[in-house]
Amino acid sequence: METCLTFILSSLAVIVVVRELSAEDLTDLPGHLKPFGYGRPTFPVDEIDKFPNPKYFFDNYVKTLKPLKMKGAAKFSAGFKKWTDDYFLSLEYAPDAKKITVETEKKENRKQPITEMAFKDFVKVYNSTEYYMVDMVPEVIRLADTCIFLFLLVGYMPQNFLFQ
Q1: 10 Å Cβ neighbour count for 119?
Q2: How far is 56 from 70, CA to CA, in rounded Å?
Q3: Are residues 39 and 31 in contact, defined by beta-carbon separation less than 8 angstroms?
Q4: Pair 82, 113 in one domain
């Protein structure tokens, strides 16, 4: 009985607090009824057109928690030129390779059918269907291309490293 009474009293206290808060007129608060983020101060963000030197980036942006916009920087990555449909279709996948999860409609719909398929099959149809991959990049691509990314990041590429 004591536990039940405690629960009822604490519930009443929560209701009173919520009613007090909801009675407050919030229309004068910064950002109320304005676009998201409107009431917050804005700060300039540095912008560059490529990847910065890793040490410079770490010292000036990561350590200082300062944002940086790298406009068009993806064009300088190995994957930008390499990751084409033809490249994905040319890779050798293990027969037991994990299937990827695919939504069948690009528009958000929680009731839409979700299916699994081989990544190669997805690459063959994604341009002509509404299929949308909602999974991690297949491991065969991550393993090969992560090495390239790491070499670029540290600024060293072994002479005998073979690109696929």
Answers
A1: 23
A2: 14
A3: yes
A4: yes
